[in-house]
Amino acid sequence: MSDNGHGAAGCLRPRRAFLAGLAGTVLLPFTAGCGQGNGGREPQISTLEWARRQGRLRIGYANEAPYAYYDTAASRVTGEASEIARMVLAELGIKEVEGVLAEFGSLIPGLKARRFDIIAAGMYILPERCREIAFSDPTYRVGEAFIVARGNPHRLHSYADVVQKPRVRLAVVAGAVQRSYARSTGVPDDRVVVFPDAVSAMEGVGAGRAEAYAATSLTVNDLLARSAGGLERAAPFVDPVIDGVAVQGYGAFGFRKMDVELLDAFNGVLSGFVGTTRHLELVRPFGFTRQELPGKVTAETLCAV
User: Fold this and answer.
1) What is the radius of gyration, based on Cα positions, of the chain?
2) Whose C-alpha in 84, 140, 141, 305 is 20 to 30 A from the C-alpha of 65?
3) DSSP state of 211
């Protein structure tokens, strides 16, 4: 950033903090020592240090329970990802977490555009996403499920069943991995109906706009627990098989690639937390159990698949 040209008088006026676009740094107000060896430029610090000084950090979420959603009764963002983020950030000296709502498909662009600083939405680690952003190590592993009309009239128990039934349409959420699963398993694009969020996708099945909605098993359980009826979870269900392997999703937190210090510090806390009694107690209200623990899989491994 060039000198502001105001000379010594201008140096006495603190300038507003703003986010720099390079190297994951933040430019803070600087008044002392102006013009003495630094040309009046603000010192550059990391996003982590900026958040520590401000005492707050913004998380992006997509309003999908049980991962991250707004609880109107409590007037706060909550869910598995939100509560883990709060705990980790508090350990890092950042006490306030501000939620920024976005459609799921807008989370990565929003992070890169600095609308928020971490994606806390239960986002799966996928190689194509790894090319755009960095991920923490995963906090859970989960399989897939379908929401269908009561009685499952089309007998849908897998993505393969959708492929084999030409009149069946599959609902997915924009930007979600289920769109990729549908393509990889051979579901034609003209039989995939894209919705902006999980609730509208479920409602689409209820209204007859699609015969099944594909989502994570935990999302399906949460939606059906709060639905008005007429819908059910397809059972049994077979996870999609891609390249000969039954796939499961690993959810994690997303970071800008330049925010290395923040990511490393976040992972440092996670490594001693995930799988502990404290972790399981924190996520149990959202339907997570020991069965969903990610094991020893890392983001590096998943990004390289």
Assistant:
1) 22
2) 305
3) S
Phi, psi for residue 45 in degrees, rounded to 5 = -135, 165
Reference 269, options 141, 90, 48, 95; nearest CA is 90
- At the topology level, CATH places domain 144-246 in D-Maltodextrin-Binding Protein; domain 2 (3.40.190)
Class for domain 54-140+251-303, per CATH?
Answer: alpha beta
Burial class (CB in 10 A: 0-12, 13-18, 19+), 200: middle
Six-digit token string for 43: 């010192």
Domain ranges for the chain: 7-42, 54-140+251-303, 144-246
Beta-sheet strand order (sheet of 144-149): 192-195, 170-173, 212-216, 144-149, 231-233
Region class of 79: left (phi > 0), else alpha (psi between -120 and 50), else beta: left
Distance CA 254, CA 275 (A): 20
DSSP character at residue 158: S
The tens digit of pLDDT for each residue in 16-53 reads 333 333 334 444 433 333 333 334 434 588 999 999 99
pLDDT in tens, 223-272: 999 888 899 999 999 999 888 888 999 999 999 999 999 999 999 999 99
Look up the pTM and report it. 0.79
